[in-house]
Amino acid sequence: MRKEEILQQLYGILLRKSPAFSQYTLEQIQGESLNSFGLDSIGLLNFMVAIEDEIGIEWDEDRTTSETLKSLNSIAEHIEHEFESVK
Known about the structure:
Blueprint: H1 3-17, H2 26-29, H3 41-55, H4 72-86
């Protein structure tokens, strides 16, 4: 799965889980901290669960850091790496 595809999926999930993000385009938010747009820890947890359900990954506590979850870009890169390591 390519990063661009993952970003599109993440953006769709984010919009469903946090409709306030609909005022921003993917390009506006993909590299920015999700926290700076008001996504709190509960919102992030809900987003992570939705990512697990829709994309089919499991968050490994040993490899998932706050930096991993900082932005859509960092999440997409993590997911892309996880899919590559499964091959």
